[in-house]
Structure formats: structure tokens, C-alpha cells
Amino acid sequence: MGRVIFLLEELSMQTLLEGLLPRLFPGLPFLCIPHEGKDDLEGSIRETLRDWGVPGDWFIIVRDNDNADCVTVKNRLRRFCHEGRRDDAVIRIVCQELEAWYLGDPDALAAAFRNERLRRIKNQSRFRDPDVRPKPSEDLKKLVPEFRRNAGARRMAQHMTRENNRSHSFGVFVNGIERMINS
User: What distance in Å separates the CA atoms of residue 159 and residue 23, rounded to the nearest whole number?
Assistant: First the structure.
């Protein structure tokens, strides 16, 4: 197997993955290619996949859902992959925003921001399923006023765990990487 190439919606996703993946998947060869938002990502998929010249590399495309229809988003991304001649690319939709993954692991959130009260959100019904929160970034900003996207991603990467995270989309993301490695 070659490298896993992550085509990402934004820089904070790269920051998170570059700190998190070596802990979750030691020795995994990967490359993150961040984009400047959904439009930039979606506009580059066909060409990037079609023109990629390294045999054996695998692609995972990661995009926030941002309250869009998940099936529609995934189908559009699949079409772009097909047009780029890479039907084997894996598509992962973050529900609703990357910050839901952080809310899904309150222990990591508390450790990352050195605030023990953040552990208590796991007992609050509104945070039991972070993927259904309409704007997790706003929730996080209220809980951690000093939160900044890239710095927060860097901090969270050091503490997030697969086992403790209640975000379903995070679990699907991690399982997708594991399946790719084991195929």
C-alpha cells in the first residue's frame, strides 16, 4: 500500500490529522492536502484524482456537512471522484462540523484546554450526540471562549481517542482508514 492522501476542506482538518493520525495509526504513511473551503475542495477533486501520478496511493476526501443533505453531498463528491477516474476514493462527511468531533470527546476537550468542567458535558443530553448539533463551532466557542480553529485542532489532536469519542462521524472516519489499511 502507498500513502493515504487526505483531500481536506480546510487547514484545521490538516492540523488535527497531522497530530492525531500518528497516535492512532503509528507508521501510517499519509499526506494532507488542505483546501480553502468546500468550493475549493470540490473544484479540485476531479483534476487532483485524475492527474495523481503515484501508483498505490489511496484517497480519502473529508468535508464538513454544514447542515446540508448528507446523501446529496456524498453523491456529488462520488460523481467528482468518478469523473476523476478514482471510484476507489473514500468519502467521509463530518457531521456537522469538525468541532463535533471535539465535543464527542469531553475528556480530550478538558485535557486540551485544561478545564475539568468540560468533562461534565458528557452528562448533558444536548451533547450526547454531537453530530446532531446544528453549529458545534458555536457550542464550542461558548464552552471555550479562547478556542481558535487551528490552535484548537493542534491541542485536540494530542488528546482525542477513538474509544472515548461519541461522534458517529468520527468513528466512521477512523473505521474507513482502518479498512483501507487492512485491504
Answer: 9
Q: Considering only CA atoms, which of 39, 88, 81 is closest in space to residue 64?
A: 39
- Cα 116 to the chain's mean position, in Å? 25
Domain ranges for the chain: 4-97+166-182, 98-157
What are the pLDDT tens digits along the chain (183 aa)?
A: 799 999 999 999 999 999 999 999 999 999 999 999 999 999 999 999 999 999 999 999 999 999 899 999 999 999 999 999 999 999 999 999 999 999 999 999 999 999 999 999 999 999 999 999 999 999 999 999 999 999 999 999 999 999 999 999 999 999 999 998 888
Q: Which three cell numbers stand for residue 84?
A: 476523476
Range 4-97+166-182: architecture per CATH: 3-Layer(aba) Sandwich (3.40)
